[in-house]
Write a structure and sequence with these properties.
This protein has 150 residues and is an alpha+beta fold. The protein has one domain (3-133): Homing endonucleases (Endonuclease I-creI), CATH 3.10.28. The chain has five helices and six strands. The chain has helices at residues 15-25, 48-58, 82-91, 99-105, 118-133, and strands at 3-5, 26-32, 36-45, 61-67, 72-79, 113-114. Strands 1, 2, 3, 4, 5 and 6 form a six-stranded antiparallel β-sheet that branches. A hairpin with a 4-residue loop joins strand 4 (61-67) and strand 5 (72-79). The longest helix is centred in the last third of the chain and has 16 residues, at 118-133. The relative contact order is 0.21.
Length: 150
């Protein structure tokens, strides 16, 4: 069951801390809906309060996903669009592990385009392949048969 959780109040998290969190628990990926391609930044972990602090500072949404195998709830903080741009710009100077992935996706963050835009589809595919090449498969939000529309 997917539950969206509300966030409240200002955040005290630093960009440095968030960068370390993203290096350890985050992923950079592309999400393809029926009509759009979206570059997405995600952090997934079992500690809800930290993700709530991230959402309070940078925006985005926190969703809860109960895990039957561990009886714990996994929380995902996701953002795309302009909110993702602000977060990426704040943490990029401090990233170590995910720096290369962020540098690949940063030029297209904040841009959501229709799949009918063939140039955009090719751009997304190029960036996705670059992520795959360095091992940044993220949560594999894009199916293996993902391709540019004919």
């Amino acid at each position: 069951m997917n539950e969206q959780l509300a966030t409240t109040g200002p955040s005290v998290l630093s960009a440095e801390y968030a960068a370390g969190l993203f290096d350890g628990e985050g992923c950079v990926s592309f999400y393809k809906t029926k009509d759009y391609y979206n570059p997405v930044l995600t952090i997934a972990m079992t500690h809800r309060e930290v993700l709530g602090e991230c959402a309070a500072r940078w925006g985005g949404t926190v969703h809860a996903y109960p895990q039957k195998s561990t009886n714990k709830t996994m929380y995902h903080w996701r953002m795309f669009g302009k909110k993702a741009v602000g977060f990426a710009d704040d943490i990029l100077p401090f990233l170590i592990v995910k720096r290369e992935e962020m540098l690949i996706v940063r030029p297209v963050l904040g841009t959501v385009r229709n799949v009918a835009d063939k140039r955009w589809a090719k751009t997304c595919l190029t960036h996705r392949r670059a992520l795959d090449h360095i091992g940044g498969k993220g949560e594999r939000a894009i199916e293996d048969n993902w391709a540019v529309p004919a």
